[in-house]
Amino acid sequence: MSTHEEAVADIKKAKSVLEAAPTEKKFFTHTSVSMIKSGVRIAAGIALAGGGWLEMNPYFQAAGILLVVAEVLGVAEELV
Questions:
Q1: What is the pLDDT of residues 42-64, one digit of tens each?
Q2: Domain residue spans of the chain
Q3: 48: which of 23, 35, 54, 64 fits an S-S bond (Cβ 3.0–4.6 Å)?
């Protein structure tokens, strides 16, 4: 059976080994994936609104504009 001092020394040794170990860096973070997704949605909204202007369809125009506005608000929400 180990003494209290030996146990404390073992814990300190384990802690120093863990602190010295390299940390794994993630290629994508939640925020970066969310921003990419929002960029795709904004591009889709612009394409939808642009198609509405070509055909003079106010419903497509409104849908595209509202999609872009919603995504801009989503990006703002992610950054807060």
A1: 999 999 998 877 778 888 899 99
A2: 4-79
A3: 64
